[in-house]
Design goal:
two-stranded antiparallel sheet, 35% helix, alpha/beta, 15 helices
C-alpha cells in the first residue's frame, strides 16, 4: 500500500472551522482574481463601512508621547493652584473617590504641586502654553487643543492599549491597522501602516516598555500590522540582497517560495498563508522603495531646518518627524512615532524640560512642512499621551522639584489639519486639573472622530471575528465630537 501523507488530515480544529465558516470556494475565487478586479480587501472594508462620509483626511500622523505628559506643566494652566502650594489634598481625594496607584497609595500626605513653569497666551486663539514649548506656542492657531480627554485606565500598559487599540484587553487591532484594513495604502511599494521609534534624550526619566500589541493587527489579517522601520542602520533588516544575488535571482527565489506557499494554502486553507505571500511580495518591493525613502541628503536645507538641528541625526524625534512627512508624501496611510520617557514620577522639571526639547521644534516643523506642501489640509496630525498627571506631588516636594503620579480623569491632546478646527481649545477642567467641568472627550470619542475625518463611519466599520462585529470604538457609546471639526 502506497504510503502518502494527507495534509488535510493534519489541519487543526481551528483551521477546520475557520475554513468551513469562510467557505473555501469564496477564498479560492478571491485568490484567482486580481486585486484590481476584486476591488481589494481594503475596498471591501470601506464598502462595509458604508462610506457616506466625505473624507477630510487621506492620511494620519500620530505622535505618541509614551508615559503621559503632564497637562499641568504644558497646556492646562492653573494659577489658582499656586497659593495652595504644599496644601494636603488627601481629604479631597478621599471624598472624590480618587483611584490611587501603588506608587502613591501609601503616602501620608498629598501635597499640592503647582507648576514652576511660566505660562502665556499665544496666537489669535489666546491658547495657554507653557514656556517649555516655545515652538508649539507659535503654531497654536493651527492646533485644535482638547483639554478634556479622559480614560478609565490608571496604569500605562492598559492605558496605552486603550488609546491605541480601543480596548484594555490584549488581542485587539490597533488604530493604524484599522486604517490599513479600511483604506489600504496609496503606494503599493510601501506598507499602509509604518511605525517609528524615536530616541529620548533624558537619561534619568522612567522609560515605559511598550509592546508590539500597540501597533499589531490583532484579529485583522496580519498584513495590516504596523511595519517598524529602524531608526539606525538599515531601516529594515536584510534590506540589501546578499552578495552574488541580483534582483532577477531574488525574483525567481521568491516566485518559487510563493508557489510552495500556494500549494500549502490549497492543501490546508489557512488564510495566514496568503498573508505570508503578500508580506514576501511587500518586502521585495520595499527593497527598492525604502532606500530612496530613507535617503535624506536630497532633502532641501529649507525643509530640514524646519525640524531643528537634529533632523539629520538618525533616531532622533526630529529625524522621525521628517521621515513621517516623507512617508505621508509617498502615500502611507498611517504613520506612528513612539517617543518614550514622559513618565515623570520624580524630578519632573528636569525630565520634562528634556523631553519637550526633543519634540517641540520638530512638531512645529512637521506642521509647517505639511502646510508649505499643501498637505496639512488632508493630513490629520495627532499629539498626546495615554493619560494625565496629578496635581499633587509624588514623593518629596520642594519649591523647585516635584513629581506627579498617573491621572486618568483629565489630560490634554492636540490635533492639527485633516479638517479639524484650527485655533480652537475644547473642554475645561476644574481649578486642580482634577476633573472635567465642560465638554468631556473619551478615548472612544477621539477614535470615532478620527475615523470620521478619514471617511469611515465608526458604527458601521467593523470586522467579523468570533461571531461578533468588532469595531475600533467597541460596543459602548462613542460620538464624533462635532465641535472639533472645521
Amino acid at each position: 500500500m502506497k504510503n502518502t501523507f494527507d495534509l488535510n488530515a493534519a489541519i487543526t480544529r481551528r483551521h477546520f472551522f475557520r475554513r468551513a465558516g469562510m467557505g473555501l470556494g469564496v477564498a479560492a475565487l478571491g485568490s484567482l482574481l486580481s486585486e484590481s478586479v476584486m476591488g481589494g480587501e481594503a475596498a471591501l472594508a470601506a464598502e462595509q463601512a458604508a462610506k457616506a462620509l466625505a473624507p477630510k483626511a487621506k492620511r494620519i500622523i500620530y505622535l505618541s508621547m509614551i508615559g503621559a505628559p503632564s497637562q499641568l506643566d504644558l497646556f492646562d494652566y492653573k494659577p489658582s493652584l499656586k497659593p495652595r502650594f504644599n496644601e494636603d489634598l488627601g481629604d479631597f481625594l478621599r471624598k472624590s473617590g480618587q483611584r490611587l496607584t501603588g506608587m502613591t497609595s501609601g503616602q501620608a500626605k498629598f501635597p499640592a504641586a503647582p507648576t514652576i513653569f511660566k505660562f502665556a497666551q499665544h496666537g489669535k486663539s489666546g491658547t495657554w502654553v507653557s514656556e517649555l514649548l516655545p515652538w508649539t506656542s507659535k503654531m497654536v492657531d493651527d492646533l485644535c487643543v482638547i483639554k478634556s480627554m479622559h480614560t478609565e485606565a490608571i496604569n500605562h500598559e492598559p492605558a496605552n492599549q486603550l488609546i491605541y487599540t480601543g480596548n484594555m484587553q490584549s488581542g485587539k487591532a490597533s488604530i493604524g491597522s484599522w486604517m490599513s484594513y479600511g483604506l489600504g495604502s496609496l503606494n503599493k511599494d510601501l506598507p499602509a501602516f509604518v511605525v517609528l521609534h524615536a530616541q529620548h534624550s533624558s537619561p534619568y526619566s522612567n522609560v515605559q516598555a511598550i509592546s508590539s500589541r500597540l501597533w499589531g493587527s490583532g484579529f485583522l489579517p496580519g498584513q495590516h500590522a504596523g511595519v517598524t522601520l529602524r531608526t539606525k542602520g538599515d531601516p529594515v533588516l536584510f534590506l540589501r540582497d546578499a552578495p552574488g544575488i541580483d534582483r532577477d535571482l531574488r525574483r525567481k527565489m521568491l516566485d518559487g517560495l510563493n508557489d510552495m506557499n500556494r500549494l500549502s494554502y490549497e492543501a490546508v486553507g489557512d488564510p495566514e498563508t496568503q498573508v505570508r505571500i503578500q508580506q514576501y511580495e511587500m518586502a521585495f518591493r520595499m527593497q527598492a522603495s525604502v532606500p530612496e525613502l530613507s535617503e535624506l541628503k536630497n532633502e532641501p536645507k529649507t525643509s530640514t531646518d524646519l525640524y531643528g538641528p537634529d533632523a539629520l541625526k538618525d533616531g532622533t524625534f526630529a529625524n522621525c518627524a521628517l521621515l513621517a512627512r516623507r512617508l505621508a508624501e509617498r502615500g502611507v496611510r498611517f504613520v506612528q512615532i513612539f517617543h518614550r520617557g514622559w513618565d515623570t514620577h520624580g524630578d519632573l522639571p528636569r525630565d520634562l524640560a528634556s523631553q519637550c526639547k526633543d519634540i517641540d521644534q520638530a512638531c512645529w516643523g512637521l506642521i509647517q512642512d505639511l502646510k508649505q506642501r499643501g498637505m496639512l489640509e488632508d493630513t490629520l496630525v495627532v499629539w498626546g499621551g495615554e493619560f494625565g498627571r496629578t496635581a499633587y506631588c509624588q514623593g518629596g516636594l520642594t519649591a523647585t522639584n516635584y513629581g506627579r503620579d498617573h491621572h486618568p480623569r483629565c489630560f490634554t491632546l492636540w490635533m492639527a489639519g485633516g479638517g479639524v478646527k484650527p485655533g480652537y481649545v475644547h473642554g475645561e477642567t476644574d481649578e486642580l486639573s482634577y476633573d472635567i467641568v465642560k465638554d468631556p472627550v473619551h478615548i472612544r470619542d477621539l477614535h470615532a472622530t478620527i475615523l470620521n475625518q478619514i471617511g469611515l463611519d465608526h458604527q458601521k466599520f467593523h470586522f467579523r471575528y468570533q461571531g461578533l462585529d468588532q469595531r475600533l470604538t467597541g460596543v459602548e457609546h462613542a460620538s464624533v465630537i462635532k465641535e472639533l471639526l472645521a
